[in-house]
Amino acid sequence: MHAHLEPFCGASGDMLLGALVDAGVPLEALQSAVDALGVGELRLTRRAVDQHGIAATKVDVEGTDDHHHRHLPDIERIIGAAPLDADIRNRAVAVFRALAEAEAKVHDMPVEQVHFHEVGALDAIADVVATVAGLHHLGVTALSCRAVPLSHGTVRCAHGLLPVPAPAVLRLVEGLPTEPLDVDGETVTPTAAALLRVLVTRWGPAPAMTLRAHGYGAGTKQFPRANVLRLTVGDPDGGDHREAGAATLTLLETNLDDMNPEWLPPLLDRLLEAGARDAWLTPVLMKKGRPGHVLAAIADPSLAESVRSTMFLHTTSLGVRQSAVTRHHLGRRTETVRTTFGDVAMKVADLPDGTSRGAPEFEDCRRLARAHDVPIRQVHEAAMAAWRAGSSSL
To answer: Are residues 59 and 193 in the same domain?
Structure first.
């Protein structure tokens, strides 16, 4: 399942939760994830609100917390001890680590010494864990997002009066697509910026998909525009069927021979975050016998500038080659098969000779394997057997 975010007027933890609930995630599922933290008396509440004529959902975290100033190890301990799916725990911890790294750069101190103020409160921890749990509940395997809207003005926090965007927010969106928002006041919170930084796998417009659900999450503040975040969820690649055809894409390449090899693998994640459809590294032998790599990415023409900027920002390259390429693709569709472990989505391609080739969705296999404590291979084999037998649940 693919989910797409449109932060029309910014993003915050409560807006993300509201959008998830409005899109159909039971509030009880989010409350269960919060309860699993085992700290404090935290209760999620929902209410319908009207934002400039748009019916939206507002979700709040209610409860008391006497300990607001937590360090990263404290938060990692709380989340790590929770009886939640490992994927939820790992993603939630990654969000707070990204936040800690941003704060560490802002204050020029080691990550472990950073103590969170507002974002270290239990309600902020609940925002992060519940958001990750909500996406997990929907079966979201990929998340895209429009450019992050950055407003102006000032915001008051534990450190006093700060400019908007807050310094930590600017650090977190560095290298990501942004756009100006003519609103006076904070519209993107550090918590939301960290969630977007870690969870979004593709930046830009929504991909082709068959829409299954959508929701609007409302923020607390009142602005001249609707203070909502929209979430759409659907089957990717046009859903059940996509005809064979061809598309013109942009290929971007650069040669690297003077970078620390340890810095190379993260580049691929950066390019995918910037909107690349795919990215790869190829070892090559360069002039003077130097070992090097060709860093390459392929992207929609509308996202080529974002990918190119990311290459310049995160490599030592002084130049990027760019060319138009034609990508031919097979007709494809999504089918769902029923197995003893649960339903598994199958990506099915139509071959030129009239036959079909199927492959189970890896994330479905991984999720069911964890739930039933069996090897992924076992779920994969069951899905293939069901597909070959024509056991579709649709």
So the answer is: yes
Containing H/E element for 95?
Answer: helix 86-107
- The pLDDT value given to residue 203: 86
CB 176 within 8 A of CB 204: no
Query: Against a cut of 0.90, is the pTM above it?
Result: no
Q: Which domain, by its residues, includes 372?
A: 331-388
Residue 69 CA to residue 340 CA, distance in Å, equals 47
CA distance 147 to 9: 11
Of 244, 275, 265, 246, residue with least CA distance to 351: 244
Q: How many domains does the chain have?
A: 3
One domain for residues 50 and 144: yes
pLDDT grade, residue 115 (50/70/90)?
A: low
Between the alpha carbon of residue 269 and those of residues 142, 240, 272, the distances in Å are: 13, 28, 5
Q: Is residue 194 part of a domain?
A: yes
**Residues 321 and 213 both lie in one domain:** no
Q: Are residues 140 and 280 in the same domain?
A: no
Q: How many CB atoms lie within 10 A of CB 298?
A: 19
Give the largest Cα separation in the chain, rounded.
68
Residue bearing tokens 């071959």: 351
Please give the span between the terminal C-alpha atoms of the chain, in angstroms, as a whole number.
Answer: 15
Does 273 map to a domain? yes
- How far apart (Å, rounded) are the C-alpha atoms in residues 163 and 294? 40
pLDDT digits (tens, 9 = 90+) for 29-50: 999 999 999 887 889 999 999 9
